[in-house]
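Team,

Forwarding the record for the chain on the shared tracking sheet. I've put the sequence and predicted structure together so nobody has to dig through attachments.
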Amino acid sequence: MRLGLDLFLEKDYKKYIGKRIGLLTNMTGVNEKLIPTIDLFHDHPDIDLAALFGPEHGIRGDAKEGETVDSSVDPYTGVPVYSLYGASKKPSEEMMRDVDVIVFDLQDIGARYYTYIYSMAYVMEACAEFGKEFVVLDRPNPVSGLAMEGNLVEKEVRSFVGLYPIPNRHGMTVGELAQFFNHECAINCELTVVAMDGWKREMYYDETGLFWVSSSPNTTGLDMVVLYPGTCLVEGTNLSEGRGTTKPFEYIGAPYVDGYQLAKALNTQGLPGVIARPISFVPTYQKYNNEVCEGVQLHVVNRRKVYALKTGLTLLETVAEMYPSDFSFNEYQNGKYFFDLLAGTKQLREVVLKGTTERFLRDCEVELEQFEKQRMPYLLYK
């Protein structure tokens, strides 16, 4: 298969000769030989790379989650870098002044919490506002484009981890999402998507023949990405989601948890495609820094059977039942629960505490049917 980047550099770039290009990318923007898009554009005789735009984690991917990134000058190319995870998440008029076109080349991981797709949306809004063209160089959805999971984000809890009404696992590529955002969310910018050649919806990333480049410091591999649509919800609780370990979003636990009992309780529930193993771990930062935690590692046995959201919710529901006086949801700011922003609804906290996950997931099926029809016109691959 061939990436949108490959096809752009083969022929599509010719449409933009003489135009000043802004590039929204990071370390995941590479070709099949791992040469960065930044270098490919900068060294190309007919591409005028005028500016770089960096999402969360920065242009080189060395900033932690939630860490503010300043604008700078790229030391390797001398091109100005405008941070979209600093003072503003949307490009200002000043940032847009020296570009005619913004090209997007970032690897998404297929879950709605991941902020790269909202950086894309904000840049699309800026392009519409300031009369610039937006071009997406499409890349695979690493967990395939078939399965979808979850509920649609409700208006009152929209945020940078859930900006538009899409499910937890959306089953779309960034190019397809760009088209969906542009039309269904009324951005209406001048949009071009350079589609891939040879990608099929059933493909997981390791079936593409491409090298995997971690999309952020805690995106450690494909098993993590498979589980993330469910285990990301742990971030909104006082359980450690495994940040500060070698297996974030696969290791889940806390000092108050008995790992053996939790693993036993989870495994008796027959979670599809997953086995829980009792573990102890000591996070090196974030929650429970330098404290011994017990919990589980979630092992992916069959990724095509994994129902990540059910796995994550069942885990939370089980911990809430086993440790009712210890388990809690973390408040975010202004009295809002971060869990609600991740969940895309204020109802899910009650679901976890009451143990009504199965009913919630049945209700989600109705929303997924609606979303599947809504997304259909924007799908680019079979």
